[in-house]
Amino acid sequence: MNIGIIGFGAIGGFVARSIKNGTLKDYKVKAVFDLDDGKLKKAKEEGFYTVDNFEDFLKGRYDIVLESASQDAARRYLPEILSHGFSILVMSGGVFSDTEFKNKMENLAKKHGVKIYIPSGAISGLDGIEAMKFAGELKVTLETRKNPKSLGRNDMHEVVIFEGGAKEAAQKFPRNINVAMALALATEHPENVRVRIISSPEVHANTHTIYAEGKSGKMVIKVENVPFPENPRTSFLAALSALQILKKITQTLVIGG
Ligand SMILES: NC(=O)c1ccc[n+]([C@@H]2O[C@H](COP(=O)([O-])OP(=O)(O)OC[C@H]3O[C@@H](n4cnc5c(N)ncnc54)[C@H](O)[C@@H]3O)[C@@H](O)[C@H]2O)c1
To answer: 0.90 exceeded by the pTM?
Structure first.
């Protein structure tokens, strides 16, 4: 499988290196695109073919493109990537909080016979949520606890800084809460997903707790994330979830979600 990578930051760099070192044996990195000269230099030094503009990136032939740049980048590049017949793995899933955009992208993907993949990112249990929803609607709450520093705040005590719908959360915290959107999409009823974001000086690992309730029962999943050394705002698990979904795409024996 040929992969093109947009954004050679914490996640993009990690995925590229994981392919190069054989962790993902079925992939070959065909091109790395970034707007940052420093990142491009680094990618080139590590032996990757690099491009500094989207037009040249599109000239490549890919089975899949990894978007690991930003929500703005996802919004800007997705239509052309799909129209060129490339599937895409979108790390900046918050972009789909715009339902009109999401529907347009789904239609484009259908038209060109390609897929849009959204990883579970910094959370877990989306397979369970997707299974539970077959029994009817779900009530889901995502509680995210972060250290005030990672939210750009100086709180001395625990404080709820946001409580509301998943879409609003994704829009207000674009860097911190892509996970809310993945969860909302998994339930298919984003309006049933509530998000609580808590700034807590006592936590040092970003913690996400998902409470789901439906006809089949209740599910509670808590994930305590180790920050990624290259970008402490990103969780290590998010980068690993990109590997997980890429591997799943090529697997014959498919386990879980
Ligand atoms: N789904 C999740 O759970 C989850 C978790 C963590 C991060 N993310 C998202 O994944 C994305 C990447 O995260 P990261 O930690 O690797 O970020 P990062 O800041 O370490 O790297 C992003 C890279 O993309 C490049 N870039 C930015 N805009 C670009 C553009 N328009 N065109 C080309 N390159 C561009 C930057 O120069 C940088 O090298 C972010 O949007 C982040 O919010 C999602």
So the answer is: yes
CB distance 144 to ligand 1 below 6 Å? no
Expressed in angstroms and rounded, the spacing between residue 164 Cα and the centre of ligand 1 is: 25
Residue 242 confidence (pLDDT): 97
Give residue 12's pLDDT: 98
- Report how far ligand 1's centroid is from the alpha carbon of 68 (Å): 4
Q: Is the pLDDT of residue 256 over 90?
A: no
Read off the pLDDT band of 205 (50, 70, 90): confident
- Nearest protein CA to atom 21 of ligand 1, as residue: 9
pLDDT of 174 reads 66
What are the extents of the domains in the chain? 2-118+237-250, 126-225
Contacts of 87 (CB under 8 A, 6+ apart): 63, 64, 65, 109, 114, 115, 116, 117
Q: Which of the listed residues 18, 46, 70, 226 should we mutate to test ligand 1's pocket, taking the one with most ligand atoms within 8 A of CB?
A: 70
Beta strand segments in 98-252, E: 116-117, 139-146, 159-165, 193-199, 206-214, 217-225, 227-228, 231-235
CATH class of 126-225: alpha beta
CATH H superfamily, domain 2-118+237-250: NAD(P)-binding Rossmann-like Domain (3.40.50.720)
Cβ(184) – ligand 1 distance below 6 Å: no
Model pLDDT for residues 117-162, shown as the tens digit of each residue: 999 999 999 999 999 999 998 999 999 999 898 888 999 999 999 9
